[in-house]
From TrEMBL:
It comes from the Bacteria. The gene is rpmC. The keyword Coiled coil applies. NCBIfam families: L29. InterPro entries: Ribosomal_protein_uL29 (IPR050063), Ribosomal_uL29 (IPR001854), Ribosomal_uL29_CS (IPR018254), Ribosomal_uL29_sf (IPR036049). This is Large ribosomal subunit protein uL29. The lineage of its organism: Bacteria, Pseudomonadati, Pseudomonadota, Alphaproteobacteria, Hyphomicrobiales. Pfam families: Ribosomal_L29.
Length: 66
């Protein structure tokens, strides 16, 4: 996911995407633990996407207060 995509989303869409990414991160951790993970770079991508979404949602919340 690119930052420009996340900026166009609403707060509800961001929270839905965050929940989806956290679920994927959970599954990736299990795959890694059991040795079934094939694309190891996906762990890093998901972690960064989660951080990106959290940052943008906090920015939007701060803009709503101001």
């Amino acid at each position: 996911m690119k930052a420009t995509d996340a900026h166009t989303m609403t707060v509800d869409q961001l929270s839905d995407e965050l929940a989806k990414l956290k679920k994927e991160q959970f599954n990736l951790r299990f795959q890694k633990a059991t040795g079934q993970l094939e694309k190891t770079s996906r762990v890093k991508e998901v972690r960064r996407d989660i951080a990106r979404i959290k940052t943008i949602s906090r920015q939007k919340a701060a803009d709503a207060k101001a």
